[in-house]
């Protein structure tokens, strides 16, 4: 099995997952909320394609990128951001009806749960949106630890959340796995000395995730359970 191959024939003692672009395709709802915010500010819509490139560094950076109309948001002022962010938060809080769980996610999470491998969720998404989204995606009750983008002072690519969860779970980096979809995930995993699997279908700012040299790149999570 590819999963045990990564751990010299054993199962990991902790698997930590990213959320957006790894477990769920949340971009359609994020784009709807961004476009609603832009329209309230009298600006043209950004659309799903652009928003897909901008997701991954939390709500504030997403809003700043939308205001900049590009990935580089340095020119956007804190004042503009402070005006726009609550509009986005209110719009995104209205629901996640277009968000879909990726194929393979349910069976692999259920398999890990039945194998008694503790699971954690580490996302840059603000905490307030996580529980409702997990409920709508039928992913409730699977994760023993959940860390959002505003749970700790640091966000991925900082390894703080991974270190925090590993300390709580009492496992060493060598016994843990992180599964994500973006450069932030791979940088965080590497900084925490944790092996990292990357999903090819997610959001990596329009770049192929192979460029970041994760330990393994998969098109479907179920490949982890196949003979390797
Ligand atoms: O930026 C986001 O909100 C997405 O976060 P995630 O990919 O870390 O789940
Ligand atoms: Mg992600």
TrEMBL record:
Cofactor(s) annotated in UniProt: Mg(2+)
GO cellular component: cytosol
EC number(s) on file: 3.1.3.18
Family: Belongs to the HAD-like hydrolase superfamily. CbbY/CbbZ/Gph/YieH family.
Lineage: Bacteria, Pseudomonadati, Pseudomonadota, Gammaproteobacteria, Pseudomonadales
Name listed for the protein in its UniProt record: Phosphoglycolate phosphatase
Keyword terms: Carbohydrate metabolism, Hydrolase, Magnesium, Metal-binding
Active-site residues, as the UniProt record annotates them: 18
Organism: Azomonas agilis
Pfam family for this entry, one: Hydrolase
A Gene Ontology biological process term: glycolate biosynthetic process
GO MF terms held by the record: metal ion binding; phosphoglycolate phosphatase activity
Functional pathway: Organic acid metabolism; glycolate biosynthesis; glycolate from 2-phosphoglycolate: step 1/1
Top-level enzyme category: hydrolase
Binding site for Mg(2+): 18, 20, 181
Cited function: Specifically catalyzes the dephosphorylation of 2-phosphoglycolate. Is involved in the dissimilation of the intracellular 2-phosphoglycolate formed during the DNA repair of 3'-phosphoglycolate ends, a major class of DNA lesions induced by oxidative stress.
Keyword Metal-binding annotated: yes
Catalyzed reaction equations: 2-phosphoglycolate + H2O = glycolate + phosphate
């Amino acid at each position: 099995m590819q999963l045990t191959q990564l751990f010299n024939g054993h199962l990991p003692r902790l698997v930590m997952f990213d959320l957006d672009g790894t477990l769920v395709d949340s971009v359609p709802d994020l784009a709807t909320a961004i476009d609603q915010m832009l329209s309230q500010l009298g600006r043209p819509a950004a659309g799903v394609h652009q928003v897909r490139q901008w997701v991954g560094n939390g709500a504030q950076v997403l809003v700043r990128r939308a205001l900049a109309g590009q990935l580089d948001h340095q020119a956007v002022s804190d004042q503009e951001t402070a005006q726009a962010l609550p509009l986005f938060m209110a719009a995104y809080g209205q629901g996640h009806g277009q968000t879909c769980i990726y194929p393979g996610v349910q069976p692999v999470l259920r398999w890990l749960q039945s194998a008694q491998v503790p699971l954690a969720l580490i996302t840059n998404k603000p905490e307030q949106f996580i529980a409702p989204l997990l409920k709508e995606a039928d992913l409730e009750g699977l994760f023993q630890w959940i860390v959002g983008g505003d749970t700790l002072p640091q966000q991925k690519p900082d390894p703080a959340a991974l270190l925090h969860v590993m300390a709580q779970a009492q496992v060493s980096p060598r016994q843990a796995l992180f599964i994500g979809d973006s450069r932030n995930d791979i940088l965080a995993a590497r900084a925490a000395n944790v092996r990292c699997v990357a999903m090819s279908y997610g959001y990596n700012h329009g770049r192929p995730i192979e460029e970041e040299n994760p330990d393994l790149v998969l098109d479907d999570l179920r490949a982890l359970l196949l003979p390797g």
